[in-house]
Amino acid sequence: MATLHTRASARLMMSPAVILLFVWMIVPLAMTLYFSFLSYNLLTPGAHNFIGFTNYYYFLTDPAFLTAIGNTLLIVIGVLLITVIGGILLALVLDQPFWGQGIVRLLVIAPFFVMPTVSALVWKNMFMNPVYGLFAWIARGLGLTPVDWLADVPLFSIILIVAWQWLPFATLILLTALQSLDGEQKEAAEMDGAGAISRFFYIVLPHLSRAITVVILIQTIFLLSVFAEILVTTNGGPGIQSTNLTYLVYAQALLQFDVGGASAGGIVAVILANIVAIFLIRLIGKNLDR
Amino acid sequence: MGSISLSSVRKSFGTTDVIPGIDLDIEDGEFVVFVGPSGCGKSTLLRLIAGLEDTTGGQILIDGKDVTAAAPAKRGLAMVFQSYALYPHMTVYNNIAFPLKMDSQPKDVIDRKVRDAARVLNLTNYLDRRPGQLSGGQRQRVAIGRAIVRQPSAFLFDEPLSNLDAALRGTMRIEISELHQQLKTTMVYVTHDQIEAMTMADKIVVLNAGRIEQVGSPLDLYRTPANLFVAGFIGSPRMNMIEGAEAGKMQAKTIGVRPEHIRLSPTEGAWSGTVGVTEHLGSDTLLHIDADELGPITARADGEFAVRSGQRIFMTPDRARMHRFDEKGLAIR
Fold this sequence. Notes:
The complex is a heterodimer of chains A (about 290) and B (about 325).
Chain A: H1 4-35, H2 54-61, H3 63-95, H4 101-109, H5 116-127, H6 134-141, H7 149-152, H8 154-179, H9 183-191, H10 196-223, H11 228-233, H12 245-255, H13 259-284
Chain B: E1 4-13, E2 16-26, E3 31-35, H1 42-50, E4 57-62, E5 65-66, E6 77-80, H2 92-102, H3 107-120, H4 136-148, E7 154-158, H5 166-183, E8 186-191, H6 194-200, E9 203-208, E10 211-216, H7 218-223, H8 228-233, E11 240-243, H9 245-248, E12 254-257, E13 262-265, E14 271-280, E15 284-290, E16 296-302, E17 312-317, E18 323-325, E19 331-332
Parallel strand pairs in B: 3-8, 3-9, 6-7, 7-8
Antiparallel strand pairs in B: 1-2, 1-4, 4-5, 9-10, 11-12, 12-18, 13-17, 14-15, 14-17, 15-16, 18-19
């Protein structure tokens, strides 16, 4: 029975956790907001004057800003495409009974446990290096000119690295969804004369739609803030070709020592992330409340 | 057309023989019920006919054609599953239309057939709904609708009523029987419920441990069970089995008498016992009697039969309707 008394004590019990989380979130946000209105550069000590929206003006009119937004979106969309499509295909394969299934499943999950910096370094040095990388070796073996991945196609390389990391996550979620598909439904479709391809498009894919939604939502949150992979491999370059919003804010704060400008950039990033979130939930969140 | 014939069909999973070898003929237009306890292989047998499982040995003929190796869709059969197996993301209309769409029939033909089926099954008002918004009975009808639009040569039902409540099960039983009379198509129906078997079947196949115990019309099985298993399985409440001296008097290892073939009297009779639990069903009263050395006996009496627990009662079995079984459990005729 939820009496007034038990409800009050329940709130009391929950309050430490709620207050801690709230403070944890609100203090950095408030400070960032505050800094974003100051002329605050680490190279010019002294008073930090209130300068209104100047920081925002400079950040938003920075030619790198639009490129960074474009790159951010390209990374999100590119990685989502690869992980969702690849995840579905991998899940379909892993759902088949074969010898050594347990070990293969374990290995497929493995990239998810590798730290982003480590995996980026592995990709940079072992695979994508134009001199001693594996891809270069293969290209030479085929008589082709090796591609200098990180210099020639930096954004695509980063998308590949990030997609490699997130593919296991998508595969795992989609595999569990696939396994929850009622076997009788597939059999019914088989009796109804649906071939393997029709069964996939009419039965399996609709069944997976909810899991796909979850994958897209969760991954988007993390992919908007890809950072370690860029820092370790391309440093946002060449030029600003692989700079995303997160990296631009980082460059502002820790390479140009402009705390005020970086804070303004951070607030812009928060607002943009929220716009994307609202857009996403409107667009595909409907799938979740069926 | 829809005659199905199985000859020495075997099925094993690994080293376990689920079906050691079955021969069975199902005539065109017959309503055949496979009945047996759980794990007796009845569903496996149905799935073998459907083609959802591969046979380990033997031959399956449909309309005289060997379909043992044919794909499920090529056998011209339709199946209604226990879980209905409706496609949850499609409307009722699309669910019913699905097999026709897979058969790439023209849109107007599909539309006509779906609406016809919906009319027969009283689903016309629900065509735009999704399965999740339907009641159990309606889902069942959609599953049947999806089966009938294909005009299959035979219907296969895999325990279709086991997810419904008792009242609905009664109604659906009648609806399926009426459907059979309308369509006159062969139906093969799997159930563990002997009431469904008795009420719907033209021919019952009693299965036990993958073997056919007896094949016959419901009344054949009721009147002349071939062995102890069938005698115990068909009929509710189940037949009383008596062993020992009383059976010896009739030159049998076991004798059986159905509860409804025992005449009860407070004063005189062949056997006597003490009334234990009585179940008043309104139309009948079931008495569970402790009949001393004969063991427990169930008897069916008139609904108005006045009796109370602990009372001494006398029973006279109807000798003409008693069943005798030998050491192997086979009926002595």
